[in-house]
Amino acid sequence: MTKSDIANEISKSTGASKAEIITIIEQFMSTVKDSLAHGEGVHLHGFGSFIIKERAEKPARNISKNTTVIIPAHNIPFFKASKMFKNQIAGFEAE
Fold it and tell me: Of 42, 94, 50, 44, nearest to 76 (Cα)?
């Protein structure tokens, strides 16, 4: 499902225009990105959390040059689904 598909579904159920919905989706994504960039997680009850995970420095191999390189420590965005969401996807009743 694409952003456009999501906007179509929301537009059908709310009666709002697709352009308005796309603007709202874009603003939501921008807000989540800004929050994560400032080190703040975004927690949506019943859906999940967008958080930052820290990856430690680690060695890796460059197989074309047969050398070892060090990948520096870095942060990555991560989505953790809520228990309720996981159960719904798995076909269990919400607890």
Answer: 50
